Every structure is written in structure tokens, then in C-alpha cells.
Structure of Transportin-1:
Amino acid sequence: FFFSFPLFGSLLPRESQEKPQRTAPLLPPGAGSPCAMDWQPDEQGLQQVLQLLKDSQSPNTATQRIVQDKLKQLNQFPDFNNYLIFVLTRLKSEDEPTRSLSGLILKNNVKAHYQSFPPPVADFIKQECLNNIGDASSLIRATIGILITTIASKGELQMWPELLPQLCNLLNSEDYNTCEGAFGALQKICEDSSELLDSDALNRPLNIMIPKFLQFFKHCSPKIRSHAIACVNQFIMDRAQALMDNIDTFIEHLFALAVDDDPEVRKNVCRALVMLLEVRIDRLIPHMHSIIQYMLQRTQDHDENVALEACEFWLTLAEQPICKEVLASHLVQLIPILVNGMKYSEIDIILLKGDVEEDEAVPDSEQDIKPRFHKSRTVTLPHEAERPDGSEDAEDDDDDD
């Protein structure tokens, strides 16, 4: 297990060995310049990194502590990050958990120390990510996507101009893994950097990205369809101009996916309609009867996540001025569905110990009978922000509502 630090130290120039506070990149023997395209690991060092990764998966607390100490010491050598990305992207003979762990350790290093990475190390990592985003393993693809997003979050979207164009180009790949991997990375970037993507700082890439995403709403793969909707959904609440310019096409494509067989797609469709109900209700009003009928079905969806997402629709609709007008004729259908959904299942009752704890003779406490009001995830009530905390009058207002 003992990691041979002299191996890494011996790869440093003599001046760097004498002054360990410097962080010169590690060089394999005979490698010359640490050019990103030419970098190759030292075999002995690579084997020791692999051993460290395997030991880090040990459940033994003492071993874990040793591993953490070793990782802290190795992080003083920037070239250590080259070894980590090499394991993640190129050692396809290794098991997936070890490769993924290597990527996650690198992700943590990027998060904590990326600004101090020498340019050749940063370039090598970025190059390897883009070259291997289509790995055959879904776990590795996801890990690379997380790594890309972490680099982008360090201010690198502006400093990595080829990232978004390359990922968008990879969406056109005939290889499913490449397309899915690129979409996974783009979804994470959209989630983390939605405002930046709609800014002049990046020359508004959404003008190209939104129409591109809409093309994939009809893809044969449900995973790709789900990624495409999830990407566009990130820009609804901010009313991104590129999306508003394509709003009718977006809604048309959503309606076409209303009967999709995949639960993740249905969940994202419900989520989109809930947000559109708040920010672009004008576009939904002509179709409101059909949308309500659809949401009645989805509230009863056999997939609980889809049903929960559909429930948000009724909460958001309740805040709209047109609620009474459009919903009154549907209440005879809606109320039984909602009441039925409130019932505890047998498992719920067992978990709540309702079958063994009889408390009919015990008076209800104030907390037991105090009403609770669910608030939509996409809506903040206007009066909620205005009332002071702890106001008894505010509670009375809620009770009246």
C-alpha cells in the first residue's frame, strides 16, 4: 500500500526537489515538455495511483484516513491530476467504480485548486473530457459530465470557447453513447449556468442551443428526449429570449410528447407545463381544457415522481386569476383524484405505526391539529414576502384563505 512519493519527487527538476513549495508539473522520464497531446504516465506511478484508488474504496476507517492523507500530499504535484484523468478516460480495462472514483477525486481537486493547475495540465484534462464523453459506460459518461461542469463553473465557460460548440456538434453523432454523453454534460451546464448562457458575455449561445435542443424532442431514445426537455426547462423561469422566440414550437413539441411511454419524459413535460403556466399562461389558455385533462391523467400516473410533478400544476393554477373560470367544470373529476391520492397505503400505515398505536383517547396537541399549507415549488405568494415573520395575523390570513 505504501505510496512511493520518491517516485513522484524524482520526476521533478532538481530545483523543485530542493524547494518543495513550488508546484512544477511532474514529468515521466524522458517525456520532455508536458504538452497535453504528448503526456504519458510513468507505469510505476500509474500502478501506485491505481492501488491508492482501490484502497480508497476500503470500508476500513484507518485505511480511509491513510488514503486521505496520501491524497492531500499528492495534490501538491499538479501532474497527479493527469494521472487521475488518465485512469478515468483511458484505462478501460479497469473496473468502472475505480475509474469513476478517479474522476470524482479529480472533480474535487478542480473545485478546490483549479486556478493553480498549470495550463498544460488543465488543457490535458479538458482535452480528455471532450475526447471521451462518449465512453461505453454510462457511469463514466456521467462522471466526465460532472467534471466538465465543475471546470465550467470555475469561470471556464469564457476561457473554454470550444466547449459548447463541440458538445453541440457531438449531439449529431450517430453513436448513441456520444450523443447521450454530450447531452448529459449540456444538461448539467444548463442547470449550473443558465443566466450566463443567456448573456452577452458568451455571445448568447442559447440562440443556437435552444433550436438545437428542440430538434431532439422527437429523438428515438427516451433518454435523449428527456435530456432535451430538461435542458430547455432550465430557461423557462428566467424567460430567456431565445426560448421566448421559440415558445410556440416548444409548446407544440411538448404536446406531441404528452403520450410518451417514458416516465422521465412525462415528468419533464409536466414540469415544463407547470412553469409555463406561471410565466407564459397566455400561450396555454387556448389549450387549457386539454392541458387540464392531461394533468388529471398524470396526477394518477403509476410512476409516483410523475404524479408528484403533476400535482404542482394544481398548486400553480390555484394562484392564477383564471383558476375559477377554467377549473370549475373539472372539479368533479379533480377532487376525487386528489382525495384518493391523500390516502395512506398499507406500507405508509405500517411505517407510521398507525396499526399498532391507538391514540383515540389521547387529546390532540396543538401541533397535531395545526393546518399546514403546501406551497408550489415554482410560485412565491405575493403576500408571503411582505408579512413579517412570526406574525399571528399572517397565520390568520392563511387560515382564512
Remarks:
- The first helix runs from residue 5 to 10.
- The radius of gyration is 27 Å.
